[in-house]
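Lecture notes, unit on protein representations.

Consider one protein chain, 388 amino acids long.
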Amino acid sequence: MSHDKHDKHDKHATAETDTSHKTHEESDLQAEEKQGEGRIAVFAAIAGNLLVGIVKFIAAGISGSSAMISEGIHSIVDCGDGILVLLRMKLSTRPPDEEHPFGYGKELYFWTLVVAVLIFALGGGMSVFKGVQSIWNTSLGNYVFGDATLTYVVIVAAAIIEGTSLFIAVKQLNLARGDTPPLQFIKETKDPAIFTVVLEDSAAELGLVFAFLGVFLSRLTGNAYFDGAASVCIGLLLCFVAIFLLREAKGLLIGEGLRHDELLRVRTIVEDESAVLSCGRILTMYFGPNNLLVAIDVTFKPDTKAKKILRSIDRIEGAIKKEFPQATRVFIEAEELGITVRQRMSLARDDEHAFDEDFEKWDGDELSPVLRDAAKSAIAAVEHETEL
């Protein structure tokens, strides 16, 4: 009979292990698919920006438009940013080692920060500088109009190429976000790769609109200030995108965890376990888009057997990983209330008043009403055992 019991327990444990391995494999597969989607969008953006950037500079040289120079700078900066995006995607997938036990997932967030700084300094800064320089030259009467025919052709061609890249990026974004509204997804996602490309390509399309208006109005009115103003607008647009990315990257780099509603779901999972008396602090942090750390303080009911506590912990971990596949590490700090009371009584055994003061503080400041009642019951049980 005992042998059959052990066999059943072993089979149950094996089944739980197989399920856990399967969950991890499915999570890894989903992570690879998402990263593959991100790479597609990034490769499309790099190719588009490189081609467009070269043609923009040629058009700028012929027309003398500062707005087209700014657009050329914009495209080359975006191309460089795309290369950094691929670099961060590669570096962030390195396996954990002794110096980085939680892996290199935050490389993704660091390089997002670098990309934002480059957009702000090189893209935004240089575009504003060229615009101001053009306005200054115009005020001195040094601006010379060139042939704008090629510029119009380039703007239309660039709009088509950038639009194609944006279409691919938006498609990948929609696949990743599901039914979540776009702005909410951008705010909540822990993977900045896809929405970074969407923002850059959207800024590129809007920048082309500014460039077209600048060139067209300057030729239509004979006033070259429009061209310089368009260049400044392109620079300010890039600065806005950079500041938005800096804000998102900062939060991710410092450390973000689960949302409030997700934390409530974790608490529900823990407290639904029959052996659990109370769920304490829940600490979470993302070390990458698919690398979530969860640490939980759990108080078990008095006199719960060690074997039952271990099985409860296994069930809690399994339920959390099923609900949140990105949770690669779940740590549960388990306390059995009776053992905790015994430890405190043992420490204060030589000084009865010290124990009374210690319990009053513990009872008043640290425990919920449910835990206070359970603690008093546990203390009464321990005192009864001591008297016996």
